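Amino Acid Chain and Its Fold in Token Form
===========================================
Scope: a single protein chain, as residues and as a discrete description of its fold.
Amino acid sequence: labelled as such and written in the usual single-letter residue code.
Position: the record begins directly beneath this header, with no further notes in between.
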Amino acid sequence: MDNGNGGMFDKFFSPGMGGNKYANPFYGIPLQYLPLNMDGMLWWADHFLMRFGFYRTALSRIANYFITQLNIDCEDEQAKKQYEEIFETLRWKEVLGEAGLNVLGYSNSFISINQGFERFLHCPKCNKFSAIERIDNFKFDKGKFVYTCPSCSFNGVHRVVDKPSRDINKINIVCWNPREIKLRCEETTGSYEYYWDIPETYKKKVTNKNDKFFPKKTPMVIYDAIYDNRMIVFNQKNFIHLKLPTPASLKTDGKAVPLCIYMFDDFFMLKVLERFNEVICYEDINPFRVIAMAPNTMNAQNPVFSTQDGGVWANTVNRMIDRHRRDPASYYTFPFTFEYQQLGGQGKQLAPTELIAQAMNNILNALNIPQELYTMTLQAQAVGPALRLFENSWSSVVDNYNKLLQKIGEVVAKIKGLTPAKISLMPITF
């Protein structure tokens, strides 16, 4: 994989810079894999989430720690009750948990609150509208729907009409793959435009000829974009970009640098140690057992040794081992002595368990997670200061949650015609 370095670091971290007698410690092996472009950073973020279970668990615990209860501030009490029912229908806690995991894993979460729709096929001859959910005898190819009108028997291309639905159950909240989202950013004004670069696998899936599922469910704006070979522009009235702060000197054109990139060397070292541990498990946990002739048997004066070759001797030993596996209580006779040795088996002493634990602790500390909180062993006398520091370190997560809840509330209010409300999470208490 191209990590996007492009030799940039060579200018600053050349091993022989300044006539130093020693190698530059900053020019280590991890630097050869460190990505500098955003797509490479997000690729590694995916990789770390998949390969390090403790890291994914730590992020999930952070994300869920801050999810408390809804605080809905609305002048209309009836509307407030409707908000509460609607948010429960939308499973708002699951939505926040997923959004939080994306924010922490990628430092970016791109979310759209999609209003549902009802699709109809409009007959161009008699103007009859047929709900597509109730029919399957249509043909679909390249975005065109061919259907026989039940009213006038016209058989041909019908126009597709999508009517927005007021059914809350049809609202779908989507967390988009950050690698598929492209954006344009104007830094001085803070203006953004967001696009979905539709992946080829999705295009192939929804455009299969005469499929009976996706033509009913996929918005026509997506089909139009696919057949016009262009990206989809998100409507920012129902779209939100949540992200964590990024140092100003790192120019990322609007996206935030994933947290794991700041810990790249720690992840690299942890994987090196785990790889070494893997070799030990294969090679040094179980001893290598060897049976050999004893030195006193290898004598030309020994009549047994002088009349048998090594192959016969080895076959006899193999039969003895086979009998022992079938009946460990059996007795054996041998015409001369032999030696038994166990080679290896020092895996427990060789395993770098302390170094692995230290590398994991370094990553957890970089995430501002108290070790006791991760292991669920936080003591009562330390719970107050430790959790207070932890909460202050991740105050941006709560801010992002509140932004998302408010955006969902605005979309819901528009769909259902409710009185506007301010929606946020209750402050954390312990």
Q: What stands out?
A: The first strand starts at residue 70 and ends at 73. The chain has 16 helices and 15 strands. The mean pLDDT is 86. Residues 291 and 317 are 8 Å apart (CA to CA).
